[in-house]
Write a structure and sequence with these properties.
globular, about 300 residues, alpha/beta, binds zinc ion, TIM Barrel
Length: about 300
């Protein structure tokens, strides 16, 4: 396994190019022929009942469950919207939920949901809400994350709404928060896309920061040319994974219903060495989101 030391002295299976079979732990297991269990670390379960406008994907419970089955998804992390919508008990399908404090920072909502156990992580929408992660108004939210031992997920990068403010959504300021809150785990959603270099560095440098690379495109990658998908999805993910030099840092996420889960998982697989699929698609999410072991996965 990789040590958390600086780049020049880091010892890692990737850097040394040695056999992953020589390392113990879930992230360095050799590939097997058993079906790859997937945890999707970024979905939305609002189920509006109509096609999602940008992707055309039917935003229904039926379509969601069908996509989980088709892609081999055994668990997912559903993100509450800014307005507080999107909760449906889908525990039978391995779905957990992140609570959003919303634009007004509703601490009571966050505390109640975490206390009740209906929600097991916190989602903060940088950019959609014009506050930096270092805004003092978020300090009580981080305190709740520490108290309940749940990770905080930040939206970063490009925004769906043209009315959002990009400067708040750049991932650099997450470094300050990671340093000041070492006992809280943070996940940079969308890996800061298109500011992937900044996001990768923040995750590389900080032991308590992770990345997911959801929604680098909208819709189904299989509907686009392979060259286009390679350039804008596969190669950026491959670069991020290579830069952080730690297979425990990247999680799989799609951002359904903006993205077809099976098609996006295929693009993710093209970006990653096969021996690290198990870590990125499953084990890292189990650890970061404190999920119960599923499908034979051992908790590290
Ligand atoms: Zn999302």
């Amino acid at each position: 396994m990789c040590e958390h030391s600086r780049r020049r002295t880091r010892v890692c299976a990737i850097a040394l190019g040695v056999s992953v079979a020589a390392f113990s732990g879930p992230s360095c297991r050799p590939a097997s022929d058993t079906p790859l269990p997937i945890i999707d670390a970024h979905v939305h379960t609002d189920f509006t009942g109509v096609p999602e406008p940008a992707s055309g994907i039917a935003d229904t419970r039926e379509r969601f469950l069908a996509e989980l089955a088709r892609a081999g998804v055994v668990g997912a992390v559903a993100h509450m919207g800014l307005d507080g919508a999107g909760y449906e008990d889908l525990a039978d399908h391995g779905v957990i939920h992140c609570v959003s404090p919303g634009p007004a920072i509703d601490l009571r909502r966050v505390e109640e949901r975490l206390q009740a156990g209906t929600h097991r992580c916190i989602k903060i929408y940088l950019g959609y809400v014009p506050r930096f992660p270092t805004d003092s108004a978020y300090e009580p939210v981080y305190a709740l994350a520490r108290r309940f031992d749940v990770p905080v997920v930040f939206h970063t990068g490009d925004t769906y709404s043209a009315d959002a403010r990009l400067r708040y959504a750049r991932p650099l300021a997450i470094d300050d928060i990671a340093v000041e809150h070492r006992d809280v785990d943070f996940v940079i959603a969308h890996a800061g896309y298109p500011w992937i270099q900044t996001a990768a560095e923040v995750a590389y440098k900080n032991p308590n920061v992770y990345l997911e690379a959801s929604a680098f495109m909208l819709g189904d990658p299989r509907a686009r040319s392979r060259e286009w998908v390679d350039r804008y999805v596969v190669e950026p993910i491959a670069w991020i994974f290579g830069y952080v030099e730690d297979p425990t840092k990247l999680l799989f996420g799609s951002d359904w219903p903006l993205v077809d889960i099976a098609g996006y998982a295929e693009a993710y697989r093209r970006a990653l060495p096969r021996e690290h699929w198990r870590a990125v698609f499953h084990d890292n999410a189990v650890r970061v989101f404190r999920l119960e072991p599923r499908s034979g996965a051992a908790r590290p």
